[in-house]
Write a structure and sequence with these properties.
The complex is a heterotetramer of chains A (316), B (199), C (643) and D (177). With 199 residues, chain B is mainly alpha-helical. Chain B is 74% helix and 1% strand. The chains are: A alpha+beta (316), B mainly alpha (199), C mainly alpha (643), D mainly alpha (177). At the A-C interface, helix 1, helix 2, strand 7 and strand 9 of A face helix 4, helix 10, helix 11, helix 12 and helix 13 of C.
């Protein structure tokens, strides 16, 4: 589960631009800091001090030193300003590319709803907490929020962008290297702000197309008897009030779409790995793992639970 | 060790008017605070207007009659206010009491008209953002009218009870604050009543 | 003024009579009705330090929860209250008020007058502040503490997503502390403009007073923004207005604009008085006036102005047009220049002067070391692309602790060590002071430097825990250890203060050999501060005081008379009588507090409360015998007549 | 005098604590349906002692707001709209066909009712069901005013529940007043 989540391991053009800007700022400010510290230490421990602390000549020389130091800092700040504005302009540069992919990301209290848009209704894909993108192609994320302010931030790919209820924001990301990049909500949004992560899985175009194709298919019929019984348990449990599985009667829109749950790497917005054990723990005691989450504690155990787990694993 | 160059201040007066007094500077600071409060409310009005295609959103603009009447009364009240200030700074007790009473009449008048103004707004505070900001703008100014009215009433009572020189300074400062309350109504009046047409 | 004709001849310049006229009343009534600026200010400093300790305890609890991943020491609900209370306490109940309280104590002494300009208003300001602080902590203990962050973004803090009255507590706290700050601001401006000793023209005003003056003007211009924002939020939550309801024309970003238009000047309101303290300490402990007086004053003024022009750098991640953001990048970088000039001037002063290694001076060196680093990370945050990476992460937490603890708490600790002898008459223990500094310096850096790395490696702010696989565990454990060290150093300071109050060495008039006027009085100063009032001849009154230095005579001792001087050249203008101690500011503050708390539960609480709160204010203003103190009034009580 | 203040603070304390409590995982007040449930006032012999189920969610602001969210997420709005009724009966007035006590409303949700009220047994978990019960009672003004919800971030279709007048449980079937 330890996927990269750092600003210094840039895997996309936007993040790379910012990383080089960071190192420019870092070295300039470190140099200034060291110089100021040296000046302060020398000033404090120097030996041969002027007899009259207020002698005008020394004061004038000090005035010249202050003026020149200020001049130098002005020039340095100007350099940093220009480089910052140039790097900033680069981050909106992706708009020109018409072949970009449109994804609508809706942030809700404590998970991310991801929808791959398409003019043909059957081509649309709805998944949660994971964004698959092809390597090398710019991706336009349309950001919305249905409740409070969240902030989408995948440090390896780009900066963060707030999702404000009542407004839609456009946000560009692009990955140049394959890999799984972890991101997290960066604007305080309530009880489970700490466990609201998402994964951006960058893969080559072939794998991405195969993944998209598989996500478009409805849920496969359960192969064996136990999985079939699991589906019946699912359709008669509280799950149907909120979740949806295309191909079955469950059509709830207020919670993640579970049609391809088994294909996801994590559960509960990047909090726990997607293994049967964790899935069982999450179903029976969601509040234990994420106290305050909207998933209620479901009273399923024993035989029903095993059947349900078996069924959920078939949802590849 | 009293030396010859000591500064003898025993002859100085023990009260003064205008920007020589402490109270004048405190009132100016208060005016800056109240001015910022009004300015921020007006900026909020303009900001909210910017987010709406139609303003006021499916409501009719506020009726102009009572607002304009009230503005006239307030501007007119500047005359007795100035006279009160003149007599106060001449320390003439009788005329100061008289003209301060006249100011109180004007204050009572525009407070009554203000109640009618609320009716002419054609919206409640909880209808939408427009209603909220318009009610807040009008209510903020009304709070200032009320506090100014209560100040003047208390001052008038004090002029009858124990009129010392310091009280005349207070009357003169109260007149200055009265100007602020009346003049700060002008931009709010323009925004509330002519905002729908101008913005 | 008493009727001169009937009463016996006025008594001028008599120390014994002065002593009697200015003596504060004893007993509980004396405490509740005190108007002497030193009594009120000392109480203010102690109260804000208590809130500092409470805020520190909250911080330790937070650090203890974060010391390892998926810790269950504190749940999310309590943790959200903890970090909101920590932020609100430190910003509203400690940082801004303590700088003003220090100003209320030192400024009247430094400019050579007998009391603050509007003493009863000063008492009222303290009581309103106290009611606000007690109200916040009682609510917190009743599980009603705010839990949406110290800046309380809507719609999370709106009526739909914050049920109950937790956020209303925050909104009312803001009202309390704003009134106290505004009132303090007004007093300091009027005092510095009108009550300076003759001869102290504006270009001889000490830098500490310049800092307090500019801070007070920033308070007056900035605070209304948050007052309106918190009242808009309270209206939205209690009477269903729609300022922040996107469906009915409101907007969530309106809150951010209103709050941060106040928010950024607020951090300069905390920081600029600290610059004043550093200037005072550097001047005294290098035995030389600060180099470039005009440059320092202009830097303070320009920091104050530019401070109002960069609030949008808190909102770079919101969908605000890119072009607008670059303007704020430029403004945010430009403000580094005045601070830089001041640092260079102090270093030049140390270079030319003869530094003494006393505790206050150590805190100034600590300030330079830490604040400069914080200022430079601030330049990084000014750049939009960099800020989009590290905004709302632990990098920002590290930045603002470097500029707030480094930039304000270090100078404040230096200031407390510097003025402690003047306030209490006792010297703090030198070695204990040095240990306090060393522990604080080490503890601070161990706690907050790793947070820069945490922020770069993706740890967001305000998280009650984190997943183990992120690898943030070790650095968080290190930060928690550092927080413990900070706790020890604050404890050490308390021990030092407690010890010094009883057995500290007796501090004479001027233990540090300083230059400013407050060191001309005894420690602690008498109730009337100066007898006779000094006449100022230069920027360092005590250092270049000639043998036959003139002083002011002809001020009455048998009533609380104070000399009012002109704004620019401080020429004597007229005399004013200061009001005597009165209980009514206390009663007014309690009624106002009752009104604000009642508004929490019913909108009618505001209307009824306003009427109830007006009564004590009118009585406070109503002329009464008890308004005047001093022997002049005891004779002609019977035949009071028009002047 | 100080004892009086101490008592006052204690009372204030419990009231405030109660309203602000966030109970994430707690067994709801009455998991099964109590045997004392009755549809009518008539019963042979004397009136038996009535067991009252005091759902502490009534005074809890967070539970009521969660109940409001579940009310909208589970599409109760479809028939009852926001309390004004439509296909289903209105919930804001004081006319209760099957009783207004917490356990009556809980039974209605669980068992379903003729003319279209579906049965949600097994579909809505216990805790969320009791939160919806608390919200429905707050719609009718049967719960303390300061715990009810204020306006929400949607179109302003009606006054928020917190400002609807407080009503006592006068004369409904199923429970003696």
């Amino acid at each position: 589960m330890n996927w990269p989540q750092t600003m210094l391991g840039a895997a996309g053009p936007h993040a790379r631009g910012v990383e080089s800007l960071w190192w420019l700022f870092f070295w300039v400010t470190t140099a200034v800091y060291v110089l100021v510290l040296i000046a302060a230490v020398l000033a404090t421990v120097r030996r041969n001090r002027p007899v009259d602390p207020q002698d005008p000549a020394a004061s004038r020389r000090a005035g010249v030193a202050i003026a020149s130091a200020t001049g130098v800092s002005l020039v340095l700040l100007f350099i940093l300003l220009i480089s910052s504005v140039r790097t900033g302009r680069y981050s909106i540069q992706g708009l020109a590319d018409p072949s970009h992919i449109n994804i609508k990301v809706t942030a809700q209290q404590w998970w991310w709803n991801v929808e791959y848009e398409s003019t043909i209704a059957s081509q649309r894909v709805r998944t949660a907490n994971e964004i698959h993108i092809p390597v090398g192609r710019p991706v336009l994320l349309k950001l919305q929020s249905t409740d409070v302010i969240h902030s989408l931030w995948v440090p390896n790919l780009a900066g963060k962008k707030d999702l404000i209820p009542g407004q839609e924001a456009a946000f560009w990301i692009q990955a140049d290297r394959e890999g799984v990049y972890r991101g997290q909500c960066a604007e305080f949004c309530g009880h489970q702000h700490a466990h609201m992560a998402l994964l951006v899985i960058a893969e080559d175009s072939g794998k991405y197309a195969m993944w998209l194709e598989s996500q478009r298919r409805p849920a496969a019929d359960p192969p064996d008897e136990m999985a079939k019984r699991g589906r019946d348990v699912f359709l008669s449990a509280p799950c149907v009030m909120c979740h949806s599985i295309r191909g079955t009667g469950a059509g709830g829109r207020t919670a993640p779409d579970l049609t391809h749950l088994a294909s996801r790497l994590t559960l509960a917005a990047g909090t726990i790995p997607n293994t049967p054990g964790h899935l069982a723990g999450w179903i029976t005691d969601a509040q234990g793992i994420k106290p305050g989450t909207r998933m209620p504690t479901i009273g399923i155990n024993g035989e029903d639970l095993q059947a349900l787990l078996k069924y959920l694993q078939t949802l590849k | 060790m009293a030396t010859t160059r000591d500064l003898d201040v025993s002859g100085l007066p023990n009260f003064a008017f205008g920007n020589r007094t402490l109270l004048w500077w405190a009132t100016v600071c208060l005016m800056i605070i109240e001015g910022m409060v009004f300015a921020i409310s007006i900026v909020t009005y303009v900001y909210l207007r910017g987010r709406q295609p139609e303003w006021p959103p499916n409501l009719s603009a506020p009726g102009l009659f009572w607002g304009t009447v009230n503005t006239m009364i307030m501007l007119a009240s500047a005359v007795p206010n100035q006279i009160t200030k003149k007599y106060a700074e001449k320390l003439q007790l009788g005329p100061t009491r008289l003209w301060l009473a006249v100011c109180l009449l004007f204050a009572a008048a525009f407070l009554v008209v203000r109640i009618l103004e609320y009716g002419a707004l054609n919206t409640r505070w909880d209808t939408n953002a427009y209603g909220s900001i318009v009610w807040v703008l009008l209510s903020l100014h009304t709070v200032h009218l009320l506090t100014d009215f209560v100040d003047s009433v208390v001052l008038e009572a004090v002029l009858f009870y124990k009129p010392t020189s310091k009280r005349f300074v207070d009357v003169s400062e109260n007149a200055a604050y009265w100007y602020f309350v009346v003049l700060s109504w002008i931009p709010i009046y323009v925004v509330i009543y002519f905002g729908p047409y101008l913005l | 003024m008493p009727a001169d004709a009937a009463s016996p001849a006025a008594i001028y310049d008599d120390r014994a009579v002065l002593e009697e006229t200015w003596r504060p009343p004893a007993g509980l009534m004396g405490v509740l009705s005190a108007v002497n600026h030193k009594l009120v200010a000392r109480r203010f400093v102690v109260t804000t330090m208590v809130f500092f300790l409470l805020g520190g305890l909250l911080a330790l609890l937070m650090r203890w929860q974060l010391r390892r991943p998926e810790n269950t020491f504190i749940g999310p609900d309590l943790y959200n209250q903890l970090f909101t209370m920590h932020g609100s306490t430190m910003m509203f109940l400690f940082a801004v008020p303590i700088m003003q309280a220090l100003g209320l104590y030192v400024v009247p002494l430094m400019i050579g007058t007998r009391n603050i300009a509007l003493p009863r208003l000063n008492a009222f300001g303290y009581w309103v502040f106290l009611v606000g602080g007690v109200f916040l902590y009682v609510s917190f203990l009743l599980n009603m503490g705010p839990d949406a962050g110290w800046f309380n973004y809507v719609p999370l803090s709106g009526p739909e997503f914050s049920p109950g009255h937790r956020i209303d507590t925050w909104a009312q706290l803001v009202n309390f502390t704003e009134i106290a700050a505004l009132v303090g601001g007004i007093e300091l401006i009027v005092t510095i403009f009108k009550l300076r000793a003759p001869g102290m023209s504006l270009n001889r005003l000490p830098l500490f007073c310049w800092a307090q003056l500019i801070t007070s003007f920033m308070v007056i211009f900035a605070m209304p923004a948050v007052m309106m924002a918190s009242n808009f939020l309270a209206l939205d939550r209690l009477v269903a207005t729609h300022f922040f309801n996107p469906a009915e024309g409101g907007d969530a970003i309106l809150w951010q604009h209103l709050f941060w238009f106040f928010g950024h000047p607020e951090v300069y309101i905390i920081f600029i008085p600290a610059l004043g303290i550093v200037s005072s300490i550097v001047e005294t402990f290098t035995r030389r006036p600060v180099v470039g007086y005009t440059a320092m004053v202009l830097s303070l003024v320009s920091t104050g102005f530019i401070g109002f022009g960069l609030w949008v750098h808190h909102m770079f991640a919101t969908p605000i047009p890119q072009m607008g953001q670059s303007f704020f990048t430029a403004a945010s970088m430009m403000i580094a220049i005045p601070s830089g000039v001041q640092i260079f001037c102090w270093i030049a002063t140390i270079w030319l002067g003869r530094p003494q290694w006393k505790t206050p001076f150590l805190f100034v060196l600590g300030f330079i070391a830490i604040f400069v680093l914080g200022g430079l990370t601030g330049v990084m945050l000014a750049s939009v692309p960099l800020d989009l990476q590290v905004h709302d992460t632990f990098f920002v937490v590290a930045h603002f602790h470097y500029v707030l603890i480094g930039g304000a708490v270090f100078p404040l600790m230096g200031g407390l060590h510097y003025w402690f002898p003047k306030m209490t008459g006792r010297m703090l223990h030198e070695t204990l002071g040095r240990w306090t500094f060393t522990l604080l310096f080490i503890g601070f850096n161990v706690t907050f430097f790793p947070m820069h790395l945490l922020g770069i490696h993706g740890m967001p702010r305000r998280v009650y825990t984190y997943v183990p696989d992120t690898g943030w565990g070790p650095m968080n454990a290190l930060a928690t250890a550092g927080a413990m060290i900070i706790g020890f150093s604050v404890l050490l300071f308390l021990v030092n203060a407690a010890w010094a109050l009883r057995r500290g060495a007796l501090a004479g008039h001027n233990p540090w050999g300083a230059a400013t006027l407050e060191w001309a009085t005894s420690s602690p100063p008498p109730a009337y501060n100066f007898h006779p009032l000094p006449v100022v001849e230069g920027r360092s009154p005590l250092w270049d005081r000639s043998a036959d230095a003139p002083s002011v005579i002809g001020i009455r001792s048998d009533c609380r008379e104070v000399l009012v001087t002109r704004v620019l050249d401080a020429e004597p203008d007229h005399k004013v009588e200061m009001p005597a101690p009165s209980i009514w500011p206390f009663v007014s503050a309690m009624c106002l507090g009752g009104m604000f708390v009642a508004t929490l539960f019913t909108p009618w609480g505001f209307v009824v409360g306003a009427v109830v709160a007006t009564i004590p204010v009118i009585i406070w203003f109503w002329p009464k015998e008890s308004d005047h103190a001093g022997r002049a009034y005891r004779h002609d009580r019977s035949n009071e007549r028009a002047a | 005098m100080t004892r009086l203040i101490a008592v006052l603070v204690l009372v204030l304390g419990t009231a405030a604590c109660e309203r602000e409590q966030r109970r994430f995982n707690e067994a709801s007040p009455a998991s099964g349906i109590p045997q004392t449930l009755k549809m009518g006032q008539l019963e042979p012999g004397g009136s038996a002692q009535q067991v009252t189920i005091q759902s502490e969610y009534d005074e809890n602001a967070w539970a009521i707001s969660e109940g409001k969210r579940s009310y909208e997420w589970f599409n109760c709005v479809g028939c009852h709209s926001h309390g004004g009724g439509g296909i289903g009966p209105p919930l804001m007035d004081s006319r209760w066909i099957y009783g207004s006590e917490p356990e009556n409303i809980f039974a209605t949700i669980m068992q379903g009712r003729p003319n279209g009220m579906p049965s949600f047994r097994g579909r809505i978990p216990q805790q969320q069901a009791w939160q919806i019960v608390a919200y429905v009672r707050s719609l009718a003004g049967l719960t303390p005013a300061d715990a009810r919800s204020q306006r929400d971030d949607d179109l302003f279709y009606k006054k928020p529940e917190a400002r609807t007048p407080q009503k006592g449980p006068e004369g409904q079937p199923g429970r003696q007043p």
